[in-house]
Amino acid sequence: MNTPFDPDTPRRPGLIARLRASFLTGLVVIAPVGLTIWLIWTVIGWVDGFVWPLVPTAWQPDSIVNYWLGNPRFVVGPDGTRVPNEDWVRVNVRGVGVIVFLLFTVFIGWVAKGYIGRSLIRWAEHVVERTPVVRSIYSGIKQISETVFAQSERSFEQACLIEYPRKGIWAIGFISTTAKGEVSAKGGNTGEMLSIFVPTTPNPTSGFLLFLPEEDVIPLDMSVEDAAKLVISAGLVYPNGKDPTEPPR
Q: Which residues neighbour 121 within 8 Å (Cβ) at sequence distance 6 or greater?
């Protein structure tokens, strides 16, 4: 038996509720796109701001455009002194600095592969190695750069599951490399040891470097991108949202 408090048909949501639902839906659609565009735009602006002060004034976009237009940077004022030209065209094209940086990097890489480039690099490194403070900074940055950009082995290409910080508690990590040198020799393990990076939530750029026996590391089927999403979202975004117990397809 129905009562006045139990209507046959459910009540339709009010205008405020429908507007709120539409706003949240629109926010879900706009936020990822907007944040992505903002991040790319900010990075491009940062690169431009770093590159353009290093480019000679004569090669700046302002100088090139005004040279074609025949506009001098300074003109003679009424009192005979040089004053800035009011007709000077300002050019601010974001992204040109990124192109200049890419071309310059490619050129440096091409020169470094040649005999003269390698000789100059060896001479410069020999000078740096004789400078106490600069030597430590340069060697650390060089090692990181070679590991990230020039390493032929697989690095950060597989997610894994490890027991950390104690038995019974599991954490997601990323397999970096196979431990080598003194770490592997004195680790007290008869088999191979793996370097595991355990990121923190929600900032995966910080974390812990752990060396674990290979048998204690459980590789995951999910990709590194899916594992990173899981870490950043604090466990809210799973690779397979319909059934997290199944591996991603």
A: 112
- State the pTM of this model: 0.49
Cα separation values, 101 from 37, 52, 98, 208, Å: 20, 9, 5, 33
SS3 for 170?
A: strand
Q: Which two tokens stand for residue 121?
A: 């690099």
* Separation CA 103–CA 233 (nearest Å): 37
Q: What are phi and psi of 217, to 5 degrees?
A: -110, 125
d(CA 227, CA 37): 23
Q: To the nearest whole number, what is the mean pLDDT of the chain?
A: 81
Cβ atoms of residues 232 and 204 within 8 Å: yes
Phi and psi, residue 156, nearest 5°: 55, 40
Query: Which tokens sit at 16?
Result: 């405020």
Higher per-residue confidence, 241 vs 114: 114
Say if residue 172's pLDDT is above 90: yes
77 has pLDDT over 90: no
What percent of the chain is predicted at pLDDT more than 90?
A: 13
Q: Are strands 170-178 and 193-199 parallel, antiparallel or unpaired?
A: antiparallel
pLDDT on residue 198: 94
Tens-place pLDDT, residues 225-237 = 899 889 888 888 8
- Tokens 């940077």 belong to 73
> How far is Cα 185 from Cα 211, in angstroms, rounded to an integer?
12
Give Cβ neighbours of residue 193 (< 8 Å, ≥ 6 apart): 178, 179, 183, 184, 187, 211, 212, 213, 214
Query: Measured between alpha carbons, how far is 60 from 245 in angstroms, rounded to an integer?
Result: 57
